[in-house]
Amino acid sequence: MKITSSIQLIVIVLSALTLSACESESNIYTNQGDEARTLTVMTHDSFSISEQLLEKFQTDHGVEVRFLKSGDAGTTINKAILTKDNPLADVLYGVDNTFLSRALQKDIFESYPSPWLSAIDDNFELDSKYRVLPVDYGDVCINYDRGYFQKHTLPVPQSLDDLLDPGFSDMLVVENPATSSPGLAFLLTTIGRYGDPGYLNYWQGLVNNHVLVVNDWEVAYNQEFSISGGQRPLAVSYSSSPAFEVIYSATPDSEPPTAAIVGDGDCFRQIEFVGILKGTQNRALAEQWIDFMLSPEFQEDIPLQMFVFPVNEQAVLDQVFTEHLAIPEHPAIVSSEDIAEFREEWINQWTQLVLR
What we know:
This protein is an alpha/beta fold. It contains 14 helices and 11 strands.
């Protein structure tokens, strides 16, 4: 009798442990049914999200989100295209309007019309089939070091035309449009401003003025720009950069050390998109991630994380941006159709002229 009772007790304990384990496993997949608990998001290297917000999404959906950072926007798109038959991720974020046509032509996305599109201005929606959805935007403009020009008692350039003046020789650093998204955006600025082939004449003038070309924004802004210890007081960056200089200043500066040139035709509006990659095994979860990225909660997190701005009209901006942000009223315009048709030709022509 004692042996039988002991065996019964063991069976009861084992059953309880098994039930507990099953309940724990069930909790892991909260809201996901029998879906995998890992979502992979391919992004460019500048992607960032606050830790608390990411943890909330993961907890709410019982999932681990893994980010596959893949270089700048152009490199990221190329990697997604090369692996389209065996995709590396479920979702891709970071394709912008300068590379959008390449991604759509290669048919790497699945359509998804998120309900949050109703809160986004139609001007940001560039794909009528909803293969990619707008997330954020930023205006690529020339930034200048205010202290440098004050110290040297030099006039500040007021437009792209001014940069051809010999007085601004050896002052400008730009990014290579073949390797950099803001670099391509600035090339498109000059095309929208001066036309084709007029933009080549403009770039010849910049070459004559000893423009410096680097591969990416990090090098241009954080190494070559004079506010970062470099030698160039003019750099291709964003109209939002001055506001971020105030936010991240080591001292509570009341005025930013930089400013942007935002005259008519002097900037290019860059829009970034997110889309579900074909072949995903986590379609429902990918949709939830996109809804999350378009929600006010994520949209309000964008500026302080990635230095760009929300497209959701319900998102509220921090006051520092309203104080120091200069928004171009009339950025240069190049149609998405022209970008699709002539982008590679323009880049090749630029390369032959500037890097020969």
